[in-house]
Amino acid sequence: MSNLITLFMRWLCLLSAIYNAKHIAHGSSMGESTRFYDFKVQTKRDTKLCNSKDIVTINGMFPGPVIYAQEDDRVIVKVTNKTPFNVTIHWHGVRQRLSCWYDGPSLITQCPIQSGQSFTYNFSVVQQKGTFFWHAHVSWLRGTVHGAMIVYPKAGVPYPFKFPYEEHIIILAGEYWLQDLQQIEKATLASGGPPPKPDAYTINGHPGPNYNCSTNDVYQIDVIPGKTYLLRLINAGLNTENFFAIANHNLTIVEADAEYTKPFTTDSVMIGPGQTLSVLISANQPVGKYSMAVAPYESGKIVIYQNVSAIAGFNYIGAPSDSLSLPAKLPKLDDEVAVKTVMDGLRSLNQVNVFKEIDKHLFITIGLNVQNCHSKTPKQNCQGMHNGVLAASMNNISFVNPNISILEAYYKKIKGTYTEDFPDTPPKFYDFVNGAPNTIPYDTQSLNGTRIKVLKYGSRVQLILQDTGIVNTENHPMHFHGHSFYVVGYGKGNFNPITAQFNLVDPPYMNTIGVPTGGWAAIRFVADNPGVWFLHCHIDIHKSWGLGMVFIVNNGQGEQESLPHPPPDLPQC
């Protein structure tokens, strides 16, 4: 009977694959078709871990619906907000060439879509293909409002690796809380302290058998011995970076952040919020059941983590139904070497031409701060270190959201929304990692402001991101909107331009880089996309505390180098 059920499920999968293939192939054989999607932002009752609560979703799905497209396609998504919460949608990793108005970060490129309102996103995936995802980009709604976006190569263009027997999307929604997410965010920011640890981790929305009432709430993939599978890994979590592994199976990375890489084989990966990896898995082990496991990478020494792993199944067809799953072996939860080993293995598929002449040098420190307590109720509002208020900053400036979108203010020349004085360097240089003043009679405070950095169109930029130990060194997944960048170098300790080693031959081309714990990363990009672009830590509590800044890329020459007019249905604040 179980074999009949398996065959029936495989038949359904085959029909689905044929339908998707026809859907993707519809239109021009050269790509450049138009894909239409309808997103309804709505709440649904969700039951997990012996409890039920309302969560915000797209179309009642958690995770949300998958968007499929081909390279160079146009994607049109009408978003209608049927909840009482403000919402926007960000198309993570899509460079939004000449479509900055549709990038999605709230109060950066648009005002939020308010309750009862709609907004239609309209953009093309120009010269891009691979594993992307979309997510809410206002408050902490991203915790449940997210989904995959898969962009295939143009018709007739093969993958540069062995064609897989099947593909599977694996969304690591890093955390699941029993409490309402909006309440957690509001209470955390009001407390001045850190957020509570999550109640569970999930894999494609399923926590797995390690948690209460979750023995049957398990995601699984059924595999055929001898076949090769492509797993598209997406970390859509809020505040936790995660290790991922499959028992007794190696993972061969072939794509990172929707860019092909040289194949690199490892037994585990660390993937931070905002990052995607595509990995090949060979079903080359004895027939049986094998666990897929997700656990936190505990890079922050003062952070409270949930240490119970989420588990999914990687089960061979023909395995006895009563057999036990072999456990996956994960690295130690603070294993920096395991993280560095994978990063060392990421190389662009082909040799690239990284520019050597630099027009703009930037050195930006990133990290946490502690502000002095000014509350009349310090026990309630000053729960950070040394009875202070936790904050985060870049070059010691904590980003403050304006009252209208920066892009609209820039386009309409509205004064008073932001200042163009984000500094090229921190206010002072010292031993950022080991000598930072991390106690409050010393100055651990940051300045507050909506400061931006203006770049001339076509500028070749080198940016050094330096982690600091003012409060706590940790790995920061830094995401850049509107651009990808070459990760030309990274290392431990303070950046030293004399001893730093750069790869200008085949560095990975990414949109989110994990700046190492107590270390630095060097990226290079060309500012060739006019508009307003957010650079921020993809750990949401850090972003809420102010770990972000904004670039404005000025117009170049002519229409193809200039910001278009805003869409007529752009939401108003």
UniProtKB/TrEMBL annotation:
Transmembrane segments: none annotated. One of its GO terms (biological process) is lignin catabolic process. It catalyses: 4 hydroquinone + O2 = 4 benzosemiquinone + 2 H2O. The keyword Secreted applies. Residues 41-155, 169-318, 422-556 form the Plastocyanin-like domain. InterPro entries: Cu-oxidase-like_N, Cu-oxidase_2nd, Cu-oxidase_C, Cu-oxidase_fam, Cu_oxidase_CS, Cu_oxidase_Cu_BS, Cupredoxin, CuRO_1_LCC. GO terms for cellular component: apoplast. It holds the Pfam family Cu-oxidase. It is an enzyme of class 1 (oxidoreductase). The keyword Glycoprotein applies. GO terms for molecular function: copper ion binding; hydroquinone:oxygen oxidoreductase activity. Its EC number is 1.10.3.2. It is found in: Secreted, Extracellular space, Apoplast. Binds 4 Cu cations per monomer. Keywords: Apoplast, Copper, Glycoprotein, Lignin degradation, Metal-binding, Oxidoreductase, Repeat, Secreted, Signal. Residues 1-27 form the signal peptide. Its cofactor is Cu cation. Belongs to the multicopper oxidase family. Lignin degradation and detoxification of lignin-derived products. This is Laccase. It comes from Vigna radiata var. radiata (Mung bean).
